[in-house]
Structures are given as structure tokens and as C-alpha cells.
């Protein structure tokens, strides 16, 4: 049995009597959504969940609003439609299993009430965010779906943490920062603009008409999904191995500079080196999705609502047949790009440029998608996100789910691994463990799997076994 109701804030909101909240140009990811679900191994009180949700919405009133396009892109808060809450009896299939649970779920992904961006934009289903609660024996399934125009994963996780804190009676964290008066202008130097535009991935410059398109556009070739599971010990060993390579590179990097290479840098560099075996063209540029809140507080304050994303692009990478040299070269160039992405002036300028790439297509009723990009790859890593804090009173036992969203071989997802319930009922979290998901073209699975073993032994050695792989044909 399912019930559906609209939930409004339980009292005055942080935006007071505001009727409109203007969206920034970088919020106009109009055909994308953020969908996430949590599985709590306990039967939570649904009435308390609903009351805590209503209280949460006082800090997140935009989740209750309505999208308007005229005279400018904004969220209308008066009248406030509310956030749809779906309550279901019974858990989605597969949510009652113990043992490993992959973060990235196979299609259709987490079984939650989801935003359809096309119905949203047409006005058929105007909700900006939807919440799902499903109850079963000794477990509760919680889901949030929202248009990417409203929030990115950073803000959705903040929403979930606040909901969790209110449910268990904790002191809640501060609400997001709201500021719709920040105006960004393009740099006056044409060469600067050209440089910044050259750093953008094809995702921002490839569009399609929202009112008339062929779905095959998003599926350019048959693919197979492969998940790679790194234990915490494997991640540490890989990181240490890459740092040793950096220190030993003819003295060009001091030990201090080598130590700047992070676990994330090492994982990304290793994974791209492996993926090259399945590509027609080796990767010469890597784009990392970066939450750049706080790098320039005047432009994008820490915990700013909406989207705080930029794409940090490496300089062109020289391909080497030497595996160790290739991994190190990728790692160093990734770190260089991420340091550039933290520069306050760069943040201001690149957001001005990327904003136009989101805004102009939105004005023309066009959406964006990830096209094939030989030689380039996007890494969307959520490895360092604080998702375990939204535990609803059950720390160390909550598992999360994310959709398998991009059907091309040039988009890599990374997540911290879920905790595992053992056969005797105890819970175990492998700190630092990582789950990586990508697609490879059909027929190239063996190339990828062989390369993973080869690169691992060459870089890390044979003391630790090769990370586990799961292949989904």
C-alpha cells in the first residue's frame, strides 16, 4: 500500500517571506537529477520521520518551491506547493540482503519516487524534490530525488543529515547559505576566456533539443558495466606506491611535494591507466568534478545552496608505454588541475564561463549530455563525501544507494564502500575502502580486467591481491 502527501515546512523558513529565489547560471543543469537512497537496518517511526522532514524543510524551503523561467530562472516560494512524500509498505527488492551491497545500483537504480526532468520542465509534474519512505521488517528505506537545478549531492547530503539529526533529536547543523545576488561576469581578456573554455568538458558544450530528441543519442554503443572494489588496505598501498614513485622521479619532486598526492589522486591515476586498455584512444585529459564551495567565499560560500561544481581539467598528458610513469604522470597532472581549481580568481572566472554554457542552452530549451570523447574522461568522485552522518540513530550500519546514470565509457564514478553486515549480525566498516564504477565497450571486458591485474602488480606489487572486480553484462 502506498500513500502520497505534500509536506510543507513546519514553521517560518530561513528565507522568511521571500517569494522568489533567483537561480545562478551554474544551477541550470535542467535535465539532470540527483537521486540517492539510504537503507537503515531498523524500523523507523514514520510519523516522526514526517515531522522531522517538515522541520527540515524550514532550513531547505527551496525543496518545496516551483521552478519558473520568466522573467528569469528562479524558484517560486509563494504559494509554496510543498514536497511530495511517498510512504510505502514493504522494502524494494534486494534491500533485505546482508553482506555486500554495492553503492551504484543496476538500472533502474534505487526504487524511489523520482523526478522526471522533462515532465518538470513541461509543467506536468512541477515538484522540485520528492521523498520516499518504505518500511519493512527491521529496516527502513529512505530516498530523495531532486532536480539538479535545485541542488548537487553536497546539498542533498546536507538535507539528509539535517533530517537525520532532527529525527533523533540532535542539534542540527547550520542551514545552507542562501545568496542570489552574486553576479559573475566573463573575464575581459579574450585569451583568458578561450583558455577557460578549453578547460570545459564536452558535457558543457554538447546539447540536444528537449522537445524533440532520439533516445539513442545517449546510448552511442553497447557497453558492459564493471565495478572495482578496493579495500582500505589496497587504497593505502596504492597511495603509498604512487608517492614512492613521485619521490623517486629523478629528484624532480621533493618528498614534501610528493606527499601532496592524495589517495584520490592515486585511485584516479591508477584507474585511468587501466581503462586505457579498453579505449581506442588513450586518455590525454582528465576532468574531475569538483565541489568548489569555499575556495572563493565571495563567489561561492561554503555550504552555498544550489550547485557548487566546476570541472578541473588536467593539462594535456603525454602518454608513456611505461606503466609506472603513466600512473605517476596522471596523478601529478590531476593534482596540478585540482590546485588550479582552488585558486580564488580561477574559481570566479571559470564559473562565469561555465555559467554561460549552462544558461544559453537552457534559454533555448536545450539540455546537456555526455557524448563520446576519445582521449578524455570525466571522474565524478564522491569518495570523500560525508554520507555516514545521516544515520537516523544507527551509526555504522546505514548503507546508501546511487543510480547507474551514464551509459558511456568516459564517465567514472567513485564512492566510499558501504558497511557490511556479517553472518553473525555484526557490522563492519572498512575505512578508506572505495567502489569504482565505469562502462567498457562490449567485447573489451577482458582487456580491462587483464590490465587491472597487470597495472596493480607493476605499481603496487604482489603482496596484496588485486582489487575485486564485478562484471555486469
TrEMBL record:
Q: Which InterPro entries match?
A: CAT-like_dom_sf (IPR023213), Plant_Fungal_Acyltransferase (IPR050317)
Entry keywords, A to Z: Transferase
Q: Which branch of life, at top level?
A: Eukaryota
Classification lineage: Eukaryota, Fungi, Dikarya, Basidiomycota, Agaricomycotina
The species this protein was found in: Trametes cubensis
Please state what the protein is called.
Uncharacterized protein
Record-level Gene Ontology MF annotations: acyltransferase activity, transferring groups other than amino-acyl groups
